[in-house]
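Quick bug: Putative oxidoreductase output formatted oddly.
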Amino acid sequence: MVDATPIRPRSAATVAEWDYEADVVVAGYGIAGVSASIEAARAGADVLVLERTSGWGGAAALAGGFIYLGGGTPLQKACGFDDSPENMKTFMMAALGPGADEEKITDYCDGSVEHYNWLVDCGVPFKESFWGEPGWEPPFDDGLMYSGGENAAPFNEIATPAPRGHVPQMDGKRTGEKGGGYMLMKPLVETAEKLGVRAEYDMRVQTLVTDDAGRVVGIVAKQYGKEVAVRARRGVVLATGSFAYNDKMIEAHAPRLIGRPGAAIEEHDGRSILMAQALGADLAHMDATEVAFVCDPQLIVRGILVNGRGQRYVPEDTYSGRIGQMTLFHQDNQAFLIIDEASYEEGAAATTATPFLRVQPKWAAETVEELESDMGLPAGALQSTVEVYNKHAAAGSDPLLHKKSEWVKPIGTPVAALDLRGFTLGFTLGGLRTTVNSEVLHVSGEPIPGLFAAGRCTSGVCAGGYASGTSLGDGSFYGRRAGISAAGQA
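Here's what came back:
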């Protein structure tokens, strides 16, 4: 639930006393906030971070740790992959639309190699090894993986495939508890602390403070239930995450996610977005959502996914986030995996980071006809789907959806079906409209003086589609810009 404290901006004239002061005040100590604080401090600003929880990290520290980078990073080159900013942009414009922000994506791709080097300079470790198996993330400490369907149809024909999921090296990862994202955040926070960045914890930001000219000059927050006023001499950076856990905002903007938030934390309540909206801030792509498909890719790739009519609708070897979007948005959240016994056993024995997503078959039969009947599908519906698939699979091809030949194999018997109806959850991608310098834009199109934002409270490089790593990627990239911009204010 959103705090009931009034969200309208306060006038600085009504603030009797400032409890805290800094040149740059950053709300949120996740990936965007820490990146902003580092660059603001390096630009000579005194920086104070306000964090709602009792420690740094945010959703980033719990994430798998993918940072979407490319254009020819040293890690890509070390693993034998060629890439260019132009090739990266071609993929991102195709995969992250419709309505993708071309200026932002061009800027992001052009700066990607420098951003990788910045992360390394801040102490983020990357192992020069590539994990090429299907999966949500590398199960070991490998540093590079395909993370957005770059090597699957239709994108492998639009742009030259290159893996861009860069993962910090870490042993003993626990997906959803302490993943590669922790090893991204830890060295960045240590870098910030060495630069003199201060942090105040258990701070719930409430509203923005403006002066007579309409410039943002501070934040009102609550700490241990007491209201505190925090002055920002140069600028405020909002970096408090998405609105995935604000039921009212979800119902208003992204209703397909009602009742299925995931891959976010409960602190993602949209408060920063509302605070900026109260100043007239513009929004973008508030309906955009990432959708995870919670079944192990090692199983999915070895079968065929069908909808509630028994028809295939997506290449099974693509990114699971794309499968999730295609299932929830276009198939009424109806999905079944049809797989034969040998392929199921092979997938169940394969190495994976997510063994807990190995779904058990709900139906099993000696023939497809029998399976179809047991599933309650119209007579002939599933049979015709399997017949067409097997006819071409015998020659190692998939002319319907273009699954790569290495995963194309006729479905034999016995055959089973996994019931994957409703196996989706997700988080929001839309938010405040910002410039490439992370200035928050007013609905008039002009920047709001003194206000900057980055991360999932903004609309970043993703407008509709998604690739794993774009949240940590553009959060850190534009977090840096926010810090530089805020520190540069008079």
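Actually, after a second look the formatting is fine. The CA atoms of residues 12 and 359 lie 56 Å apart. Closing.
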